[in-house]
Amino acid sequence: MSISGARGTVTMHDVAARAGVSVKTVSNVVNDYPHIRPATREKVQRAIDDLGYKMNLSARSLRQGRTGIIGLALPELSLPYFAELADSVIRAAEARGVVVLIEQTGADRQHELDVLTSDRRQLTDGLIFSPLELGPDDADALKVDYPLVVLGERIFGGDWDHVTMNNVDAARAATQHLIDQGRRRIAVIGAHAGETMGSAALRVLGYQAALAANGIPLDPDLIVEGGLWHRATGAECVAHLVDSGVEFDAIFGLNDALALGALHALHARDITVPKDVAMIGFDDIEDASYTSPTLSSISPGREEIAQEAVDLLLARIAGGEDPYRRVIADFTVMPRESSGA
Amino acid sequence: MSISGARGTVTMHDVAARAGVSVKTVSNVVNDYPHIRPATREKVQRAIDDLGYKMNLSARSLRQGRTGIIGLALPELSLPYFAELADSVIRAAEARGVVVLIEQTGADRQHELDVLTSDRRQLTDGLIFSPLELGPDDADALKVDYPLVVLGERIFGGDWDHVTMNNVDAARAATQHLIDQGRRRIAVIGAHAGETMGSAALRVLGYQAALAANGIPLDPDLIVEGGLWHRATGAECVAHLVDSGVEFDAIFGLNDALALGALHALHARDITVPKDVAMIGFDDIEDASYTSPTLSSISPGREEIAQEAVDLLLARIAGGEDPYRRVIADFTVMPRESSGA
DNA sequence: CTGTTAGCGCGTTCAA
DNA sequence: TTGAACGCGCTAACAG
Questions:
Q1: CDD domains, per this entry (chains A, B) (predicted)?
Q2: pLDDT of residue A6
């Protein structure tokens, strides 16, 4: 019998010996197996407490073939949207008894591919994957042999669940919101040239649809490219717009970080929001409620996305064989000061 | 021999059989054991590739008593400072070949205690712990039998490493910066009554020291309580200040989130920053560079903190027996528009 | 309701 | 330089 204080030294056998039962009984107790005599349970529990026994989770994982860990791969936690998403995912996972291992891909294509085949996948029972660079052409890379839930754009052709939002409709609603405030020269910042299926492309599509629906001509000069959706990029886009001399009376930031950077750049140029330029973002990060002026945005239902993703993943891990699903989270327009609503 | 494509089915035995060697040799190859004949190594590597072998990390963990996972316990990722810290910790860990399991304590005292004794500690080789509620009285709870690095305030009396910053000096510098701009009625928001050793208490101490050093009388009405250091709290503090009728010409937000909320509340009341009220925050989150006006702050050397914490933890995990260390990260005053510097 | 036993896949002796 | 055998701590069969 080992009664050392060293870590991981106390095993089920020690507990069993002290309680005068078999290891199986100890196992039953710690796993809340239903049919145990109260006296036995208590005896075992006392032995556990006395010895300070903690189950060796590696051994359990080896035996069960499951770790109780799910992976979450996202671009980076410094981006507020992903930090808030991770927060929600961790909460949802905790409520369901699993923990979360976060991997940052840095919005790097190779890194996104690596994460799918990394050794670490052996450590997780499944993966919630939020790709930024991968697209429909990479469907093959996503054909993995473990449970996978893809967040964001839909990538066709494989055995995985999706949790997405309707980017086109949401972007259309955002643009319509600006139009409803009487704006007609609406710039959009953060576009990705050449992309056809990513968030950027879909949101630009929604933007164009809204213009068309209102008979507003599309001016290509109002569509500003911007690679990484960081605040700095938003500021650069505004610099570009202003320097180019294009007239504009509103800006649709393809995400909030871009919009925050844009707000900053406008302010630096003494361009008043919303008087001179109205603005709306996308994601409804917490910041949006605290900027000056507060930032109108699209709330993508982050909490719902996180919970659905965790639920879908756990169902697959549990062996669910249902057809692969696509969950489309609801969005909401959040009018705030920046759009003058 | 199993050549199924099912997950985790290929073992070292399968690889050994295909390569015509023993498992020991395969193990040597995958662990980069130095003395292997090139031909053997190549043979084994080919078998690994052919079979798509991935090592079972649970088995390795069981055998070695180490998982290659470190825990990171922090209040919540929705707080930008902690999101950025987590980002840095994950990067530092990745560079050193380990992964990070994040647990959110929600700044709840019981949750902070639980995290220290949770079963999940069996899953991690050590823990980087950033407590908010625990203080010197809880030193006993921190006496754990696994490697531990404590971030933030120093908690005396146990076997663990600290990575802290000089809160008093940094707060003094922040306050001095406001004084240097000619401000004399400096409010501080986010104070915690009754606390003696936490960040709040130490920073208020630095604030008081700066006033004293400049012969400015201390007005208790300028010290505003605020529990959670969220944006909403900052806004409430300003509401309280304004409603109380106290005169003030500057605000020191004990962290940036408070300062952001305060900026928002001032703006809503048409109080101009920095003309009417100068402001400085603490943490230098990315937001601080993008608000309107940009927010002066104290940069706590987040990157340095993260790297030191990971290094210290890994040294302990590796069995380092050096005396427990206290690393004090450097801070920098970041003057921006909000303080009118 | 509880005990016995046989692996899960790996690293690590000890030999050869 | 490589091979054979054992056991890390646990759970799942199967008894009883």
A1: HTH_LacI, PBP1_LacI_sugar_binding-like
A2: 46
**Is residue A339 situated within a structural domain?**
no
Judge whether B212 is closer than 8 Å to chain A, CB to CB.
Answer: no
Distance CA A191, CA A201 (A): 7
Residues of chain A in contact with residue B294, where contact means CB-CB under 8 angstroms, are 264
Domain count, chain B: 3
How much is the pLDDT for B6? 45
DSSP H stretches of helix in A38-95:
38-51, 57-64, 80-95
The C-alpha atoms of residue A100 and residue A112 are separated, in whole angstroms, by: 18
pLDDT value of residue B100: 97
Query: Is the pLDDT assigned to residue A302 strictly greater than 60?
Result: yes
Confidence of residue B333 (pLDDT cuts 50, 70, 90): very high
Spatial separation of the C-alpha atoms in residues A217 and A184, rounded to whole Å: 9
CATH number at residue A134: 3.40.50.2300
Instruction: Judge whether B118 and B281 are in contact, CB under 8 Å.
Output: no
| Pairwise CB contact (< 8 Å): B264 & A292 | yes
Q: Please give the radius of gyration of chain A, using alpha carbons only, rounded to the nearest integer.
A: 26
Mean pLDDT in residue range A319-325: 89
pLDDT at residue A42 is higher than 80: yes
Mean pLDDT of chain B: 91
Tens-digit pLDDT profile for residues B180-233: 999 999 999 999 998 888 899 999 999 999 999 999 999 999 999 998 999 999
DSSP code of B296? B
Handedness of CA A33, A37, A39, A40 (dihedral sign): negative
Alpha-carbon gap: A118 to the closest alpha carbon of chain B (Å): 9
In a domain, B60, yes or no: no
Sign of the Cα torsion A22, A27, A28, A32 reads positive
Q: What pLDDT is recorded for position A4? A: 34
For A76, name the nearest residue in chain B, comparing CA atoms only: B87
Q: Range of A50's domain? A: 3-55
Pick the closest to residue B287 from A275, A269, A256 (CA basis).
A256
Token pair belonging to A211? 């213009």
Task: Kindly write down the DSSP assignment for every residue of A188-251, as one continuous string.
Answer: EEEE-TT-SSSHHHHHHHHHHHHHHHTTPPP-GGGEEE-SS-SHHHHHHHHHHHHHHT---SEE
Check whether residue B47 and residue B76 sit in a common domain: no
Whole-number pLDDT of residue A7? 53
| Exposure class string for A94-110: b at 16+ Cβ within 10 A, else e | eeeebbbbbbbbbbeee
Is A290 within 8 Å of B235 when comparing Cβ atoms?
A: yes
pLDDT band at A2 (very low <50, low <70, confident <90, very high): very low
Query: How long is the CA B328 to C1' C6 vector, in angstroms?
Result: 53
* Region A175-180 average pLDDT: 98
Q: Contacts of residue A267 in chain B, CB cutoff 8 Å? A: 292-293
CB contact under 8 A, B291 and A292: yes
Supply the DSSP symbol for B69.
E
Q: How far is the CA of A76 from the C1' of D9 (A)?
A: 37
Supply the CATH number for residue A48's domain.
1.10.260.40
